[in-house]
Please model this.
Amino acid sequence: SFNVGALYKTTAGFSDDAVPRAKTAQLKLEHYYKVAVDSAIERNTRRVELERRLQTEATLSDERKQRQLQQLGKKESTYLRLRRTKLGLDDFRTVKVIGKGAFGEVRLVQKIDTGKIYAMKTLKKDEMLKKDQLAHVRAERDVLAESDSPWVVQLFYSFQDPSYLYLIMEFLPGGDLMTMLIKYDTFSEDVTRFYIAECVLAIEAVHKLGFIHRDIKPDNILIDKDGHIKLSDFGLSTGFQKKHDSSYYQRLLDPTHATTSPTTAAQAQRNSVMVNSINLTMSNKDQIATWKANRRKLAYSTVGTPDYIAPEIFLQKGYGKECDWWSLGAIMFECLVGYPPFCSDSTHETYQKIMQWPHYLLFPEDVHLSRESEDMIKRLITSADRRLPVEQIKKHPFFYGVDWDTIRRIDAPFVPHLRSITDTSYFPTDEIDQADEERAADSNEASKDLAFLGYTFKRTLGKRVRGPG
Amino acid sequence: PSPTITTPKPLYLSSPFVEAALVKGNFKTIVMLPKYVDIMEWVAVNIFDFYTNLNEFYGVIAECCNQQSCPKMSAGPALNYTWINQDRKSVHLAAPTYIDYVMTWVQNLLDDDNTFPTKAGHEFPPSFPSTVKHVYRQLLRVFAHIYHAHYHQILHLRSEPHFNSLFAHFLAFGREYELLEVKDVKGSSSAPVGVGQLWEAWRQMGILEG
Ligand SMILES: Nc1ncnc2c1ncn2[C@@H]1O[C@H](COP(=O)(O)OP(=O)(O)OP(=O)(O)O)[C@@H](O)[C@H]1O
Model:
């Protein structure tokens, strides 16, 4: 017999990081076997389900049944192949740049070998490190990857190179709600009811996955080919259990560090009181015009727009999923009024207004809102403890007549007219710089890469494949 | 009394290490070919994973596997593997060099779309079964060297349950798809492979049944 303790001691002689590296290898292997067992079970379930279903189909010939089973096998095999596939930028051809976000852009791309169309989001690693957004991108990846929901944009692959992260998602050809609001100014109550009702279900779906979105805004509400919505951009979302780091917002709240919207920064600093009083006397039309003029610029800036963020998020005290219902209230207001309730010339001022929302939630006189709409908004834009929970939101008189179970299948108010699978007419492509960014990789990238370890992802078939089809 | 010096039983054959495992039960669930799935794809992705996982652990051990500690690619008290060089001659290489050659060679095969196709529509070549057998044999040697020469370091890093399970899975898979020859696992009677005994031990424990 021997002494294990002594053995451990005498064989030391590893470098300092050997133990943590061994730990990493162990964790990866544990993960590998967990996934291996899970996927074996899931694969089995898919097969058994299909076999059972085929058995009940009396009208189908044996040959057709056999073919369906072979097709399932083919699908499973393709997925296995995908696991070995190292996807890279070379595998995609850019059709057009269709969107810009805080950390990169969104392109319409075509996968070269299959010809399939996707939306590709690029995120610049050093920007993300600078802004401390690492946890966030991980969260985004996770939400998208875990979800099997019709209300959430599907993620198919993710990969990285030294400078960028890439998310390959399903392409939603209808653009986003922000672009739609820029185009239409306001919606009728019926149209608003449709979009807000769909958002209620989408937010509920995200919550059921165990996530809080935290950054729901019209830019993140995308329109599919049939005119229905899906949520994207989980950049700021967090799992329920995680504690939120509010220092980011604290910095924004601090007037000495106030970040203002790009165009009006100087002006706002000179006489913020003036701007405020002018806004109050502006007609609704002027207000809309001002708002619209700055809206897209704000969407492209790294600061982003705080217009839809709930007040409790800015505080140190923590928050729950109710914060997403506040955002929905702000969006609903915007759909009916033309601008969000706390919009201002500077982000700093917007924060202030949100914090003092009882003074600033004003319904303009020149816009007529039904009693139900106004009440709905007031029950969303209110303190967290009084905000309605989802069951009661669904029962609110504003949603009278909405069939929650079938809404995704009814005709949407605006159905995009698409001429091809690569039609980008619903995106402001002429406002976006189409030039290819310099993608030169600099040399000291290795350490940076560590931070993004484990980012690479390939979609599992999960519950999606219920049988060939 | 035997005239030879009896070598002590290797640690990996001793209790409790021989029983240490991350994955309990037998490997049938994850080794078996899923119904209707293409066997080539199944073998390909598994080899890909064995390579990746083994590489991960060797990457940690590598700093202890150098020209001085391992001047030969040893796998048993009387066994050193040789490498066939460009002139088709058997040569002895230091273990780190040998393993580097193996891993680089396998990586290149995995990256080669003509051997391990990944693009849609590309088929596996007819030579695929013989290529992967070759790959398997070389990966076995890497396992064999780590067990023989670096098991105490695996223990030091407390990775023995993980490494055992990876190797047991590798053996179970290799036998199921006839990628492994018994003679390669056990070696010859004059130069046995150390892990050959481990294979026997695990078989008796019922770990490798499929
Ligand atoms: N899957 C998609 N299909 C079609 N268009 C998309 C898709 N994803 C994003 N877009 C377009 O790109 C725009 C920017 O995307 P997104 O909001 O996800 O970027 P971002 O970098 O996360 O920005 P931010 O974090 O500031 O919101 C969206 O408003 C939308 O117009």
